[in-house]
């Protein structure tokens, strides 16, 4: 299968690599071209523009940081829409707003193309291993056509049906649940630390009793080890996701008070020079509030 890939960050690179290793013909584009060097050395073709990566492709995937990046590379004369053939599929794996997902679907429909949102749950090691969870929505023809590549990228696909915006809303919701779980753990690690119980001890108890989900084990371990640099996903991405969740909640008139707290936490991290750290460094804010930071 001929596949184009747009966006070679910490998630996009291992995902594209899995498709290349599975035998697909791959054309790759990234604004910082050097990030494509490894994939090109393994057989991928370097494209000069998103349109060039999409041209002649059966499917083009995009994995980009935010709405602004997706819009800048999807639209215009050098964008994905301009390069994609009629009846070919654009799959956005990016964490973007439901509104943008709807607009992308409309733009592709106007050009006789197909669009689907396939948002992913998991960090770069899971992407490398093909163990992502994928939340999929889009036209039935698109969902059928991309089933095999998605099986290469993830361990399970959750199919929501025809409306791609729903995949983005679910992804934002689940990211918010990760952030709020980190906040909850951080507060309790700080409380127990001041009470003489080491974070590692609380972590062992909680992950071997009622709190054994991956979100507790994986992010709890990052907090205990203070393993925030290099980041799997840095603070600006978390702040962006939380902002998009607040916008979606306002549009649907659903109060989400914890999201407002998290917004302030991420802004505090930015103000204190922690923007380059993994968002699990959110735990530092609870430690700081408790007087545990030097």
UniProtKB/TrEMBL annotation:
The keyword Nucleotide-binding is annotated on this UniProt entry: no
Domain of life assignment: Bacteria
Active site, renumbered: 171
Any GO MF annotation of the entry: NAD binding
Ranges where the 3-hydroxyisobutyrate dehydrogenase-like NAD-binding domain occurs: 166-283
Pfam name, any one: NAD_binding_11
Keywords: NAD, Oxidoreductase
All residue ranges annotated as the 6-phosphogluconate dehydrogenase NADP-binding domain in the record: 2-158
PANTHER family reported for this sequence: CYTOKINE-LIKE NUCLEAR FACTOR N-PAC, OXIDOREDUCTASE GLYR1-RELATED
Protein name per Swiss-Prot or TrEMBL: NAD(P)-dependent oxidoreductase
Lineage of source species: Bacteria, Pseudomonadati, Pseudomonadota, Alphaproteobacteria, Acetobacterales
């Amino acid at each position: 299968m001929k596949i184009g890939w747009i966006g070679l960050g910490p998630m996009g690179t291992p995902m594209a690599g899995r498709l290349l290793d599975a035998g697909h013909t791959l054309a790759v584009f990234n604004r910082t071209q050097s990030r494509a060097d490894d994939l090109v050395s393994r057989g991928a073709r370097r494209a000069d523009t998103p349109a060039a990566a999409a041209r002649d492709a059966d499917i083009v995937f995009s994995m980009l940081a935010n709405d602004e990046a997706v819009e800048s590379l999807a639209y215009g004369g050098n964008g994905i829409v301009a390069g994609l053939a009629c009846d070919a599929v654009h799959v956005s794996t990016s964490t973007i707003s439901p509104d943008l997902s709807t607009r992308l679907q409309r733009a592709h429909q106007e050009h006789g193309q197909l669009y689907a949102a396939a948002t992913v749950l998991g960090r770069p090691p899971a992407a490398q291993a093909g163990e992502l969870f994928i939340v999929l929505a889009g036209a039935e023809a698109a969902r059928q056509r991309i089933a095999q590549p998605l099986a290469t990228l993830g361990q399970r696909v959750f199919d929501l049906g025809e409306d791609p915006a729903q995949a983005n809303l679910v992804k934002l919701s689940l990211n918010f649940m990760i952030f709020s779980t980190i906040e909850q753990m951080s507060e309790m690690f700080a409380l127990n630390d001041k009470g003489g119980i080491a974070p590692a001890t609380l972590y062992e108890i909680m992950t071997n009793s009622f709190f054994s989900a991956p979100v507790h084990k994986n992010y709890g371990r990052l907090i205990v080890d203070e393993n925030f640099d290099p980041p799997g996903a840095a603070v600006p991405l978390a702040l962006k996701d939380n902002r998009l969740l607040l916008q979606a909640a306002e549009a649907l008139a659903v109060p989400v008070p914890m999201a407002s707290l998290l917004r302030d936490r991420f802004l505090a991290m930015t103000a204190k020079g922690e923007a380059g750290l993994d968002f699990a460094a959110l735990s530092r804010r609870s430690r700081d509030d408790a007087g545990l930071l030097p």
